[in-house]
Amino acid sequence: MNGLDNKVALITGAKGGLGTSVTEAFLAAGATVVGSSRSIQASDFPHPHFRPIAAELSTMDAARSLADAVVAQFGRIDVLVHVVGGFAGGKPVAETEDATLERMLDLNLRSAFNISRAVIPHMRQQGAGRIVAVASRAAVEPQALVGAYGASKAAMLALMRTLALENQDLGITVNVVLPGTMDTAQNRAGDPKADFSKWIPPAKVASTILWLASDGVSHVSGAAIPVYGRAL
To answer: Of the residues 149, 176, 178, 179, which is catalytic?
Structure first.
């Protein structure tokens, strides 16, 4: 069901706790994967169908260069998986610095806005495509002390739902996954006394993303799918 043979997938944020699992899942499903992050190389994923392109998405020019490079090399972009994001928290909104707000907007909203604007024209020209973005449970369930993070993820969710409406005429689906706390080394280090058994493994989030990218899910678009594990 999830076979992606002959599909070209661009995965932003292809390294890291979730990005690594997503990249490995798509390679195992038969896709040609172009993995992008600020620092990435072929040795990160020693697979014949993996191609690295180092890039950052803070500007539209950088995002367009990335998308154009993928199309120049492979002729198309069948799937965009946008994993890029960041977290900051620990202070109430009234005490949150401008720099924290700008960082959250850059990582969680502007990067998604830029890469979507860069990729969608190619998908519209080819008449098909799948876009899956990673938001957060905080996008739909606000929490204290993470106002900038939650607001930026909620804005990204609204953006993706808008893209689903704008591109449904050409069979382009746009969906979002909403992970709860993921069981990554970084999260364990940040909260060593937590009950890790309730955290969602990144591989489970990756499998949901893979499902949304498959041909058999053309009927699902504009969805925000919770992936919370046992922490309901």
So the answer is: 149
